[in-house]
Amino acid sequence: MEDVESWPTGRLLSAAARMVESRFDRFLADLDLTHAGMITLHHLAGGPRSQRELAQLCRVTDQTMSRTIERLARTGHAGRAEDAQDRRRTLVRISAKGTEALAAARAEEKRFEKDLGYDAIRPQLIALIKKQL
Questions:
Q1: Which phi and psi (to 5°) does residue 83 adopt?
Q2: pLDDT (tens digit per residue) in 26-84
Q3: Letter string b/e over residues 77-95, b meaning 16 or more CB atoms within 10 A of that residue's CB
Q4: d(CA 49, CA 53)
Q5: 3-state DSSP call for residue 80?
Q6: In Å, what is the CA distance from 85 to each residue of 50, 66, 82, 89, 91?
Q7: CB 3.0–4.6 Å: which of 68, 82, 91, 122 could bond 118 by disulfide?
Q8: Per DSSP, what are the bridge partners of residue 67?
C-alpha cells in the first residue's frame, strides 16, 4: 500500500474529492440524476430561472446548461414554461420529482458528511474556496 501520509496536500484533496464524488454519483444515478443536474435543481429550488441565469449560477456555458436542462426535462426532474411576464423568455422550473430527488440528495449528502467527518473540514474547504472566488 502506498504511503498516503507522504502525499502532497493537493494530491490528498484531489484524491479525496474523487472518492467522495464517485460515492455520491452512484447515489445520484439511482435517482436518474447527474451531479450537474443536482446543482441545477439546487438553484431551481428557489424558484424558476432562465437558462442563462442557471448557467451563470452553475458557472457553465449556456450550451452546457442547455444539455443539463434537456436531461432534467427528459427525466421529469424539471420543466420549461413560458415566462408570464415576458412571453419571449422561457423559464425552467423544478418539478415535484425534482424536489423529491433534491431532498433525497441533500439527506444523503448529510449522511456522507457525518460518515466522513465533514464537520471538521467543511468550514476550512468553504474558506479556501471563498478566497479564490
A1: -70, 125
A2: 999 999 999 999 999 999 999 999 999 999 999 999 999 999 999 999 999 999 988 88
A3: bbbeeeeeeeeeeebbebb
A4: 6
A5: strand
A6: 13, 22, 9, 9, 11
A7: 122
A8: none
